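Hallway conversation turned thread

IA: we were arguing at lunch whether anyone had actually written out Flagellar protein FlgN end to end. Turns out nobody had. So, for the record, here is the sequence (160 residues) and right after it the structure tokens. Reply here if something looks off.
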Amino acid sequence: MSAQPLIFKLEKLLRLNQQLLKLAEAKTEALKKEDLAVLQQTLKQEHICVSAIKLAEKERIPLTSAYLGRDHDLTLSACIEKAEGEDKVQFAQLLSALTDVMDKLKHANKLNQQLTVQALQFVSLSLDMLMPKEESPAYKPPGLSAAAQPKRKSLFDSKA
């Protein structure tokens, strides 16, 4: 089997992962600016992009299997070992490019995770400052029954 269909599929995977990286960087900026509208739109686009990557990967597997002539060890490294000439060079370039994009994507996702955790901590701290803490359920001031104790009001409706 010719390596070209597999190379085209790998190039498509590379483009999709580069697009995902751009979305991760846009998400970072949205988190920094606290722009929820942009963040929501970016998350929707990210979901679509991830679905496209999954589909392209499912299409890549049978192409790789046919190219290598086996059903196991369907890696890009195995394709490089089998390939010759220009195909070998293209596979090596794709491996390098995909590895680079994946490393950048991993770093961007880690940063986004940290920014999200910080935002959640800020929201939690803000809520704690707005709402006083409840007294310990075990402590009751002398002369006050449980019904007479003031109740903490919640910003959220727990029945919803």
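OS: looked through it. The chain has one domain: 4-130.
IA: good, adding that to the notes. The domain at 4-130 is CATH 1.20.58.300 (Methane Monooxygenase Hydroxylase; Chain G, domain 1).
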